[in-house]
Every structure is written in structure tokens, then in C-alpha cells.
Amino acid sequence: NEIKIFSPATVANVACGFDVMGFCLDSVGDEMVIRKVEKKGIHITHIEGFDLPYQADENVAGVSALAMYNALDVDFGFEIEIYKNIKPGSGIGSSAASAVGSVFGINELLGRPFNKTQLTEFAIKGEALASKCEHADNLAPAMFGGFTLVKSLDPLEILEIPCPENLYATIIHPQIEIKTSEARAILPKDVALNNAITQWANFGSLIHGLHTSNFGLIQRSLNDVIVEPYRSQLIPYYDEVKKAALHAGALGAGISGSGPSVFTLNEGLETANNVAESIKAIYAKTDIDFDVHVS
Ligand code: HSE
């Protein structure tokens, strides 16, 4: 009647796949303990790591759990303990990890009445509380693992994209906060046709590269001509970081979700570690605190 789960951090957008593409990190994530209790409803009983609301309908994990709970007809409830490791506002899917963790855990305790797509539908409600809009590009990889493509939101359709062996991500997180809602507000409403053509050519090629483990193609596809020019201005030393990462051998680099974290994809663990070191060297010369993960 009790389950402990790990809910992973995720990288959304992956350069050319704004709002549809994402991948999951295996080395960073939150933990939750969920237990079935007699008292009806969703009760958040413990939160560690960051200061977040205990009131279920004000908490991302609580809102998604409530959406699921209200779809059930049960005469018991659930307690949730949240051990939050992913800093809210860091750009690696902190709210998605919360939103997915609670519904995944409850579903396991109930013997899996819902499939992963249905669980993601509930999680979208929690994610919307945090980012003020419904998108699933962090939720889908947190729920399914690996790379995912959100084919459509209504109806929700998620595709699992294969992850080539020997592909590693390096994530650098400068300790500044960028709110997703603000990073969305600065984006233009319209896109020039020539940029759209470049972007969908790159995105299709990225998907093909992932399917065929074609690292050269992945490398040539990891570009974002639509969103990066606006959002990169919010991230200190972004151009230097990207240049250093590519120089150190990264296949490509981009903003993780809405930032401020920056991700790179790399062939091989050694390259991923070299990239981490070269980026560290840049922020180490500044007064910005940062941390780095290789996954
Ligand atoms: N696709 C979303 C964005 C992810 O870039 O705004 C934010 O978490």
C-alpha cells in the first residue's frame, strides 16, 4: 500500500522541436513516497528540498493527482511525500516531474487502471498550474522515458522515439531563474516561412537520425532558428557556452526547455564529460553559480 518512485528531470524542445520534443535524464530527478490511506482525497504530508504549497489544489503534484482521483470512484485516499531535487524554474522539467510522479505512483498502487497517455492527460493539469499553459513536451519523456514526440495535444498522442546507444546529455544549470510563462511571452506569434522550412527540415532529420543512430545527421539537425534567437538573450554567456561545447565535441547544444539550463547531446560518455568541463570553465570565470549533470 506504499510505493517509492523516482520521477526524472527532462529536457524539452531539443533545439528544433519546440513544444513537441523531449527526452528524459536518468541521473537527476525527484522522489516521492505515495501511500493509500483511509481518509479520502489527496493529502500532501511532507515536502523536502524546496518551499512548495502543501494544499493539494495549489501544488503541481497535488493538482495532477486530484485530476486522476476525481476520475476514480474510490472510498479511500492517498498521502504524498515529495522529496524535490529538481529546482523549480531551472529548465529541466521540475513541474513535469512533480505532475507525473504523483499520478504514476497512484496508478501503480491501484494496479494500473490507466495507461501512460491517460496519466499524461492528468499530469497536464498539474503542469498547467506551473506554466500557465498546457504543453506536454516535458511530461511525455518523464512518463515514457527516452525521447518522445507529442504528436498532438487534443487528442493527446505521444510517440516514443528510439534513443541511440552511446548518446549522452550534458546539462549545465546556471543558478538564475527564468519563468516559463515569461520565456513564452517574449516569443513572436508569427514565424517567417523560410525559418519554418529550416526548422521542420531539421526536426524531421533529427527524428530520422535518432531512428537510425546517425550521429552526423543528429549533429547537423540540432539547430533552432525560431526560438533560440529570442530566449538566448535571457541566458548569461549563452553564446560562449554553446561555442565551447561544440568545440569540445558536442553534437549540438541548445536551451533546455525555457532555460536557463543549457543542454548538449554527445556521442560517448567521455565527450559528454569533456563538454561538461569546458562549460564549467566558462561559468567558473564569472560570478554565476552553476551545476552540471551528465546523463
Ligand atoms: N516547450 C516549453 C517551452 C517547455 O519551451 O516553453 C517549457 O517547460
UniProtKB/TrEMBL annotation:
<feature type="domain" description="GHMP kinase N-terminal">
    <location>
        <begin position="67"/>
        <end position="146"/>
    </location>
</feature>
<keyword id="KW-0808">Transferase</keyword>
<keyword id="KW-0028">Amino-acid biosynthesis</keyword>
<keyword id="KW-0963">Cytoplasm</keyword>
<dbReference type="GO" id="GO:0005737">
    <property type="term" value="C:cytoplasm"/>
</dbReference>
<dbReference type="GO" id="GO:0009088">
    <property type="term" value="P:threonine biosynthetic process"/>
</dbReference>
<dbReference type="InterPro" id="IPR000870">
    <property type="entry name" value="Homoserine_kinase"/>
</dbReference>
<comment type="pathway">
    <text>Amino-acid biosynthesis; L-threonine biosynthesis; L-threonine from L-aspartate: step 4/5.</text>
</comment>
<dbReference type="InterPro" id="IPR036554">
    <property type="entry name" value="GHMP_kinase_C_sf"/>
</dbReference>
<protein>
    <recommendedName>
        <fullName>Homoserine kinase</fullName>
        <ecNumber>2.7.1.39</ecNumber>
    </recommendedName>
</protein>
<dbReference type="InterPro" id="IPR006204">
    <property type="entry name" value="GHMP_kinase_N_dom"/>
</dbReference>
<dbReference type="GO" id="GO:0005524">
    <property type="term" value="F:ATP binding"/>
</dbReference>
<comment type="function">
    <text>Catalyzes the ATP-dependent phosphorylation of L-homoserine to L-homoserine phosphate.</text>
</comment>
<dbReference type="Pfam" id="PF00288">
    <property type="entry name" value="GHMP_kinases_N"/>
</dbReference>
<dbReference type="InterPro" id="IPR013750">
    <property type="entry name" value="GHMP_kinase_C_dom"/>
</dbReference>
<keyword id="KW-0791">Threonine biosynthesis</keyword>
<keyword id="KW-0067">ATP-binding</keyword>
<dbReference type="GO" id="GO:0004413">
    <property type="term" value="F:homoserine kinase activity"/>
</dbReference>
<dbReference type="InterPro" id="IPR014721">
    <property type="entry name" value="Ribsml_uS5_D2-typ_fold_subgr"/>
</dbReference>
<dbReference type="InterPro" id="IPR020568">
    <property type="entry name" value="Ribosomal_Su5_D2-typ_SF"/>
</dbReference>
<comment type="similarity">
    <text>Belongs to the GHMP kinase family. Homoserine kinase subfamily.</text>
</comment>
<keyword id="KW-0547">Nucleotide-binding</keyword>
<feature type="domain" description="GHMP kinase C-terminal">
    <location>
        <begin position="207"/>
        <end position="284"/>
    </location>
</feature>
<keyword id="KW-0418">Kinase</keyword>
<dbReference type="Pfam" id="PF08544">
    <property type="entry name" value="GHMP_kinases_C"/>
</dbReference>
